[in-house]
Structure formats: C-alpha cells, structure tokens
Write a structure and sequence with these properties.
By secondary structure, the protein is of the alpha+beta class. It is built from six helices and eight strands. 50% of the residues lie in helices and 32% in strands. Strands 1, 2, 3, 4, 5, 6, 7 and 8 form an eight-stranded mixed β-sheet that branches. The longest helix is centred in the N-terminal third of the chain and has 45 residues, at 44-88.
Length: 291
C-alpha cells in the first residue's frame, strides 16, 4: 500500500511539473503556435482577422452587386427605348446607334462587375482556408469621380469614371502619357464642367478605404467602406499640374512633355464636403516626375 502511495505521489508531482511547464510555454509565441498547429486550433486573434477580411470582402461584393443591378436596369431601359424608337420611327439611325453604343458599354461593365463578384467569392473561400499569419494594413483612401459623357452636340452618351493613383504611382512613356492626356484627362474635365453647369446630370465622388491584405505571402488590395457624395450645382473643379517641381498650366502639359522620356505620375482628388454631405470643391493634383 505504501508503495502505491509513493508511486501516485511521484506521478502527481510529475504531472504538476509538466502542467506548470506547459503554462509557461504557452506564454511564448513559438510554443503556443506549435500547440495550435498540433491541435488544429485557430487563435482568437486570427478569428478576428478572418471576420475582418470577410467583412471587407462582403462589403465590396455588395457594392459590386449594387452596381450590377443599377447597370442592368439602365441597360434594360435603353434597350426598351431602342425598340420603341425602331417601332415608331421617331429617331434617325445615328441616334439609335448612339443608344446601342451605350447598351454595348453597359454590357461590358456588367460583365466586369460579374467577374469581380466571382473573384471576391473565390477570395473569401481562399482566405477562410489560408488565414494563418494573415496581416491587414491600412494604406489610405482612394477617390473616384463618376461623371456623364457628352458628344460634340452636348448630348448625353453614357457615364464614365476616373480615379486617383490610390497612394501609389503610374509610370508612363512620354508619348503614352500624351495620348492619355489628350484621350482621357482633357475630355474628363470638359465633361465634368458640362455636368456642373447642367443640373439634369449628377456628378458623384466616391471615397474608399484601401487595405493591403497579406495571406501566406500573397498580397492584394481591398477597397471598402465606400462613401458617395454628389456635387453642388455651384461646385468648382480645378486642376493643379506639377512637372518636376514646377507648376504648369494644364494647357501647356503637352508641350512640356518629352515624347521619348519616361515619367512617374501621381494623382489625387482633394475635395471639400459641406454640412449636407455634398462636394463644394474638388482639385485634381497631378504630380509628374521625369525619370
């Protein structure tokens, strides 16, 4: 009987020592992570990361779904208008062709929204299985302007958008930048001014928080928490262009760019919001640096 008591006493002491050692080990990251791996347990902090990731993905997916619904509605309205015009012969072929162009553009935009939704769903699945060691870093805010596009006779054609460089930069070959300036930026400013002067058309500014998500060495950027603001009818929209530290007039940009040089370009939309959550002022700041 005494031998059994001694054996149990020794065994209890060993168990107590092992328990204390285990508790001490759990205070260190390496030992704790090893235990999580062996027991197939996800730490609470990583559950929070998973919830945060999924929340951001769901928000963007909801936004893309809303965009798709809106675009689908616009497409259906245009298609109905085309059929009515064709049946009643109330419009010439050019007008109908313009409407058809808008339908084709909306079809492309709907397909892009569908593709993005599919990507987001795949991302949610991938994150849920690869959440270990995930990190999320806030990178800043992006700004996007949605504006109507008009033809040479000031007739509305479709809606377009332009965004900033999202805290990073674009790299252009000189001739490519000249083409982009002539083909996009000039018309963007013209159409924005027309939209401000005509209250029938809405000019919208949207901001999004940008997060950098690193999961197992794979890095992707996520936009979420989108906020939209309409412009007031008296809003001002200006451009400030800086080339190698010198401010230049937008009308002189083409003459100042060397078609055979390389450039780094950053762009930001600085804006003011009034008490009614409307944009009263917006300045496009473009910084061009010769490489």
């Amino acid at each position: 009987m005494d031998g059994l008591k001694n054996t149990l006493s020794v065994l209890g002491s060993v168990i107590l020592v092992l328990f204390i050692a285990f508790c001490i080990g759990m205070c260190t990251n390496g030992f704790r992570n090893k235990v999580y791996d062996v027991m197939d347990v996800v730490p609470e902090s990583e559950y929070l990361s998973l919830n945060e990731c999924n929340s951001m993905l769901i928000e963007e997916m909801t936004e893309q779904e809303n965009i798709m619904i809106r675009l689908t509605g616009e497409k259906a309205t245009l298609e109905a208008t085309i059929l009515q015009l064709q049946d009643t012969h109330e419009a010439d072929e050019l007008t109908i062709a313009n409407y058809q162009t808008q339908v084709d553009i909306l079809t492309i935009q709907i397909a892009e929204a569908n593709t993005r939704i599919t990507q987001l769903r795949e991302e949610m699945t991938r994150i849920s299985t690869c959440i270990n060691n995930a990190t999320i870093v806030y990178r800043g805010q992006s700004v996007h302007i949605e504006y109507p596009v008009f033809d040479d006779n000031d007739n509305y054609i479709y809606s377009a958008g332009s965004g900033d460089s999202e805290g990073t930069y674009w790299q252009y070959y000189g001739q490519d930048f000249i083409n982009e300036w002539n083909g996009h930026f000039v018309s963007m400013f013209e159409n924005i001014q027309k939209a401000i002067n005509d209250s029938r058309y809405r000019l919208r500014l949207t901001t999004n928080d940008i997060y950098s998500i690193n999961i197992g060495g794979y890095i992707s950027n996520m936009h979420c928490n989108g906020q939209s603001y309409l412009f007031t009818n008296s809003a001002t929209v200006d451009a400030v262009i800086t080339l190698d530290g010198t401010t230049i007039d937008p009308a002189d940009v083409i003459d100042a760019i060397n078609a055979h040089s390389d450039y780094r370009v950053t762009m930001n939309f600085n804006h003011l919001i009034n008490a009614d959550n409307q944009v009263t002022s917006c300045v496009m700041e473009m910084n061009i640096t010769t490489l």
